[in-house]
Prior knowledge:
Structural class: mainly alpha
Amino acid sequence: MKTKKADLGVAQRFKEFRKEFVANNMIEAEPLLNLAKSQISRIERGEEPITVATIKLLVINYDLNRDWLLDNQGNKQKKDLSKKTGLATMNEMGDRIDTLSNEISILKQNLKKAWEIIERHDSEIDKLQEKF
C-alpha cells in the first residue's frame, strides 16, 4: 500500500531550516533531531511526512515558526533577533549594567577584606621575624 507523499514545500522548508539552524549535514542532525539519517532524508525528499514530535522539537529547541514551515507564512524563526527594538535592547543593556555594577560592588568589598587580611598577616610575620 502506497502512503501519501508529504507536502514538497514543507519538505523543502524543513531541509532549509535544518541546514540553517540545526546542522548542515544529516549525520550531525541525527542526534539533534532524534531522527535517523534515513528518516531525515525521506522527510526532505517528501517521502515521509514530518511528525508533530519533530515539529515540536524544532519549535522548542530552535525557535521554529510553525506557520513558516507548514504554510510558508512569516519568518523561519518566531524570534527575529535582527528586528529587536532599540528600546528592548536598551532595557536589556540597562539590566546588564545594573547586574555588573552590583557584581563590581561585591568584588570591591571582597578585595578590601582581602587586603585587610593580608595586612594583618604581614603584621604577624613582622612580629614573628623580630622575635627570631
